[in-house]
What we know:
Layout lengths: L3 E10 L2 E11 L4 E5 L6 H8 L7 E6 L12 E4 L11 H11 L4 H14 L15 H13 L5 E5 L7 H14 L4 E6 L2 H7 L2 E6 L2 E7 H7 L3 E7 L3 H9 L4 E7 L2 E6 L2 H14 L4 E8 L2 H9 L2
Helix pairs in contact: 2-3, 3-4, 4-5
Bound molecules: adenosine-5'-triphosphate.
Adenosine-5'-triphosphate binds next to helix 1.
Keywords: ATP-binding, Nucleotide-binding, Transport
Family: Belongs to the ABC transporter superfamily.
Pfam family, one: DrrA1-3_C
Amino acid sequence: MAMIKVDHLTKTFEGKNAVNNLSFELSPGKCVALLGPNGAGKTTTLRMLSGLLKPSSGTVSFEGMKEDGDIREHIGYLPQYPVFHNWMSGKEFLVYVGQLANLTKPQAIEQAEKYLDRVGIADAKNRRIGKYSGGMKQRLGIAQAMIHSPQLLMLDEPVSSLDPIGRRDVLNLMEELKAQTTILFSTHILSDAEEVSDDLLLMHQGEMVESGSIESLREKHQTTKIHLTFRENVDTYLNKLREIPSISEGYIERNEVQLLVADIDQARIDILAKASSEQWPLIKFEVSRVSLEELFMKVVNQ
Ligand SMILES: Nc1ncnc2c1ncn2[C@@H]1O[C@H](COP(=O)(O)OP(=O)(O)OP(=O)(O)O)[C@@H](O)[C@H]1O
């Protein structure tokens, strides 16, 4: 059963669709990455899911929710640019947001202590937030989003503004929190998505381009590439290679011929037979795999 069902969600700003006809489901217990380049519509999607922005059309429904229930009780949200009260200590801030989330003061204090510890900033709990590093602020932001133990945690670009160490810390923390809550986070970096998420939703220009488990997408887009280097006349050989039926696509990059093939064994036989009978000046034959990274770059550069 889906935890969230997003059905034909669209948001139009000034006549332009920031999000266009988006449909997907989130299952409980998963960590899902909303991946896409800048301007793809990730923030707009998360804001609609969290109830902060009204869709132009389409619906978001939550499994097990009462018709008139307030979904915000079940959601924790960390915006891309969180604003903190810098004069407060980390603990004071968490107790304050806990009470805003309808916890009693003793409950808010208990939860604040728990999450200060969980996110690894308990030592700095009485220090003013203004003195925190970027990574510490981001961890405080995650504690803020978790304070009422939501079923779904939504994080907008949680690691983009961090240095490599801060980034590593926050990715590790997300890995730990996965055991406790469903996570949906946005990123424009494929390797961050691959590192912690189970599933991927790939967005471009407001639309969903691909979705599925990282494994299945990797498998689906895994084709083989052959790299050939010739001593001379590379264009002539590219044209001859394009005539071979087992080769699906061919082009020249960095002065080498690159060929995409579905059946590597057949393609190898065909190419080498032709090269040998026609005595091509072939000086390199190399095979590599096309990765999810290439799929992502292809989508982004369209
Ligand atoms: N309030 C708004 N008014 C007008 N246009 C907007 C508004 N919010 C977003 N947009 C436009 O909608 C598109 C999608 O923006 P969105 O912020 O959702 O993308 P994103 O994928 O989160 O990108 P980024 O990583 O840069 O934040 C962009 O073209 C943006 O300029």
